[in-house]
Task: structure prediction
Amino acid sequence: MKQSFNPLVPAKQSTIKAIVFDMDGVLIDAKEWHFEALNQALIQLGYAAITRHDHETIFDGLPTIAKLRQMAKLALLPNDETLFQKINQLKQLHTQKLTQLLCKPYQPHLELIQALKKAGYRVGLASNSVRKTVDLMMALSGLAPYLDFTLSNEDVVNPKPASDIYALAVEKLTGLDATQCLAIEDNEKGVRAATGTGLNVLPVDTVHDVTLNNVTTRLQALQKTEVAASLLASKG
Result:
């Protein structure tokens, strides 16, 4: 039996006009790369690796410097900013190597973003990774040409879970307000950042949930909610 898909509503007919993607765990299956890269840097400097449980429950979604500061609070590292910078530099080098080796185009995501662009949606990226990693992953994945903008944690003062990066994303989307944007996020820190700015959110568990059908379903649900709200307002 052939699987049926919901049709994508053209942007001009949709209450949502722009889609802003997170990167790690949403467009790029890179969570394991970041975990491995950080542990390689820690071990290289004589410190204990973090456990997978701690990575998933405490540190996931945070920039590396924020992870290291959190580790110091938990007495897993000395509270030393110079040390944090050294670990971070090594971690970024390891991330670059793993990205060069493992990052490749993923056809479902290419098809999704191509379909969104064809339907008139503006498409951006708001990541808690550093600029160099964002640029490399978007280039190797083949997604860079389809994005209207990309934002890294270096483009804002306060990274996620603060709302700075999504506030900046809305600024980039000239003529739109936050309620006309849909963020796609895979962890609660990103969801908090997006909702704190007023964006609608499609939460996902893995990169494999980021499909044209799932995005279309969420867009249709938001459209129905907007129509219902308008009808109630007109009756009031």
User: Anything to note?
Assistant: The chain has two domains: 11-29+105-235, 31-102.
